[in-house]
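Re: [ENG-882] Designed sequences occasionally contain unexpected residues at chain ends

Forwarding the minimal case from QA. Structure tokens:
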């Protein structure tokens, strides 16, 4: 019945209202929110009306235009220090061509194997501390959990490393944790000693200068009195 209205603005507003009430988008995991997609449909209909109507009002012109997004680009300028090469020297990554052509194989591109298992690190909620015991009874009761890998799972003769040098997957000795604090403590003590020595030297220099000035003043006063007599 709204199409029988005499004013075009009334027809447009009514059509937008009906569309808003009748559209009920489905919930999609990767499709944006329902409210956004619903409002997008209403906006596109309004944009169509503006394009067909060709309004003479300047503030409505931009609503009918089709936005064109130019090619994005970026530029970064940095200083090249050739004397430090190969450090900082531009080089093409060995896998760049494979990744650019789509030939590189990533973990998610590989097909799953039958009875394939996945591992995840379990982190402690304590920042600094020693692990006395690990209770896995509750975790092993969870459906799908097949086992737990701890320090005891390392076979005899195996290496307890995790690629980076001097980095252990499991802490072999608690004494290693004390090296950074001891280093910082020793560094602070050395700095304090240096500051104290500098202060003492400065005080001695200032005292010597003051004594010298007092002696000069005293000698000048003494000789001036002798000249008077």
């Amino acid at each position: 019945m709204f199409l029988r209205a005499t004013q075009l603005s009334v027809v447009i507003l009514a059509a937008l209202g009906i569309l808003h009430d009748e559209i009920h988008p489905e919930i999609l995991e990767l499709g944006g929110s329902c409210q956004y997609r619903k409002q997008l449909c209403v906006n596109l209909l309004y944009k169509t009306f503006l394009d067909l109507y060709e309004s003479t009002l300047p503030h409505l012109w931009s609503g009918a235009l089709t936005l064109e997004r130019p090619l994005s680009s970026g530029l970064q300028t940095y200083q090249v220090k050739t004397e430090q090469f190969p450090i900082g020297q531009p080089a093409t990554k060995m896998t760049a061509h494979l990744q650019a052509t789509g030939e590189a194989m990533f973990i998610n591109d590989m097909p799953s194997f039958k009875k394939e298992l996945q591992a995840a690190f379990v982190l402690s909620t304590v920042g600094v501390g020693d692990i006395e015991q690990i209770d896995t009874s509750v975790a092993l009761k969870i459906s799908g959990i097949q086992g737990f890998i701890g320090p005891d799972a390392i076979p005899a003769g195996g290496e307890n490393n995790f690629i980076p040098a001097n980095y252990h997957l499991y802490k072999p000795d608690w004494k290693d944790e004390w090296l950074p604090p001891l280093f910082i403590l020793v560094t602070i003590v050395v700095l304090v000693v240096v500051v104290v020595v500098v202060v003492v030297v400065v005080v001695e220099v200032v005292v010597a200068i003051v004594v010298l000035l007092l002696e000069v003043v005293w000698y000048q006063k003494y000789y001036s009195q002798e000249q008077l007599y």
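QA comment: On inspection the terminal residues look reasonable. Residues 174-186, 225-229 have pLDDT under 50 and may be disordered. Proposing we downgrade this to a documentation issue.
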